[in-house]
Amino acid sequence: MLAHGAGAPMDSGFMNTVARGVAAGGVKVVRFEFPYMKARRQGGSGRAPDREPVLRRTWLEVIEELGGGPAVAVGGKSMGGRIASLIADEAGARGLVCLGYPFHPPGQPAKLRTGHLAGLRTPTLIVEGTRDPFGTPEEVAAYELSPRVAVRWLPDGDHSWKPRVRSGRTEAQNLAEGVEAVLGFLAALRA
């Protein structure tokens, strides 16, 4: 199950590419939108994300609709992945995948969103660009993360894994590498 980030819907270019790539690897992918994003589609453009309790409740409801936590791996882009990380243990999810985790707001490294990650019991993969303003490799190395959390760094990628042209990498390469990491992680969960 994949949830969108704060600013883009479940069918954004990034979400479409990742969902199609994971599905092409033989994994069923289900996407959904939080209430505020549904309202945006109905003419409520510019609505801010719902408060955390609504986001959590929405996640738990969708998990129940799909058969409960042990039947699914949960995750998402940025905010969607962060909220999934907050409910993964409670829901009993099989695994958790965060695509560009927002460790802190850009330019505000003291406002960490990592406290719960130290005790996370759900097997977790975070796929992050090395230039992500929400958390760099140096910053993340200093955080206390559960031994159940693995971080995969994509070379020169930003929050959506896009590298600079001068890096010699392409966005397509980073997206393919990110999808490959997700597929490998999910395959290990099934083993």
Per-chain topology:
Layout: E1 2-3, H1 13-24, E2 31-32, H2 35-41, H3 52-65, E3 73-77, H4 79-91, E4 95-99, E5 124-129, H5 137-141, E6 149-154, H6 171-190
Parallel strand pairs: 1-2, 1-3, 3-4, 4-5, 5-6
How would you describe this protein?
The protein has 191 residues and is of the alpha/beta class. It has one domain (2-190): Alpha/Beta hydrolase fold, catalytic domain (Rossmann fold, 3-Layer(aba) Sandwich), CATH 3.40.50.1820. The chain has helices at residues 13-24, 35-41, 52-65, 79-91, 137-141, 171-190, and strands at residues 2-3, 31-32, 73-77, 95-99, 124-129, 149-154. Strands 2-1-3-4-5-6 form a 6-stranded parallel sheet, with helices on both faces. Helix 1 links the parallel strand 1 and strand 2. Helix 1 (13-24) crosses helix 6 (171-190) and helix 3 packs across helix 4 (79-91). The chain is globular, with a radius of gyration of 16 Å. The chain starts with a strand and ends with a helix. The model has no long low-confidence stretch (mean pLDDT 96).
Write a short abstract of this structure:
37% of the residues lie in helices and 14% in strands. By secondary structure, it is α/β, with parallel strands linked by helices. It has a 6-stranded parallel sheet with strand order 2-1-3-4-5-6, sandwiched between helices.
